[in-house]
Specification:
With about 170 residues, the protein is α+β, with helices and mostly antiparallel strands. It has 4 helices and 7 strands; from the N terminus they run E-H-H-E-E-E-H-E-H-E-E. It is globular, with a radius of gyration of 15 Å. The chain binds coenzyme A (COA).
Length: about 170
């Protein structure tokens, strides 16, 4: 699949069902900041996420194949963007789509004057940690016992990773 077959756009409430299916998938949800829940319970969380920053979706053949939220910080940190809720659709993972998508997001944020992009990745999410390192992000620190999954009886460390944009 070539780069030109994909479209990057801002997500809207009309994307709720497509994003819900990605967010609640068993291979994605453990690494996002909410438990698996029904649509009605998730709706206010979705609205809160949309208000927290710019929701981006990446489309192929009118289907959402990847998504993330870029949250711009304010005032003296207005050159900083924090990425969250990043996921590639489970059927499209491992095909280079996440890399292509995140590269486009980095370019876009750079055009908007962003100098630093940071994010959190759970210490047990080796796939994502490899992914971010490959995209140039570096580990800046470990936030101990930051994350708890309802069905697991242990707190998980969080990796703070950042990319300094030239
Ligand atoms: C992390 C994620 C976004 C990567 O997206 P993707 O589209 O699968 O990534 P790509 O195909 O572009 O792969 C890029 C790199 O990711 C890493 N990666 C991807 N799949 C991997 C796997 N199964 N095992 C280990 N590393 C893997 C590799 O470093 C890979 O580079 P390589 O192909 O040269 O080995 C995707 O796996 C995902 O949605 N995971 C679930 C949700 C999640 O963890 N989100 C991040 C929250 S911090």
């Amino acid at each position: 699949m070539t780069n030109t077959e994909f479209t990057l756009r801002l997500g809207t409430h009309a994307d709720f069902d497509s994003l819900y299916a990605i967010y609640m998938h068993g291979s994605v949800n453990p690494y996002l900041n909410f438990e698996i829940m029904d649509k009605k319970s998730f709706e206010p969380i979705f609205n809160e996420l949309r208000q927290s920053g710019d929701l981006y979706v990446y489309e192929h053949d009118k289907k959402i194949v990847a998504t993330c939220i870029a949250m711009r910080l304010k005032r003296r940190a207005q050159h900083v963007a924090t990425l969250g809720t990043l996921a590639t659709h489970p059927n499209f993972q491992g095909k280079g789509i996440g890399s292509q998508f995140i590269q486009k997001i980095i370019t876009l944020l750079k055009e908007q004057g962003i100098k630093r992009i940071d994010l959190f990745a759970e210490a047990d999410n080796l796939k994502a940690i490899h992914f971010y390192k490959k995209m140039g992000f570096e580990l800046e620190g470990v936030l101990k016992k930051y994350f708890l999954r309802e069905n697991e009886n242990k707190y998980i460390d969080e990796h703070l990773m950042a990319l300094i944009v030239n």
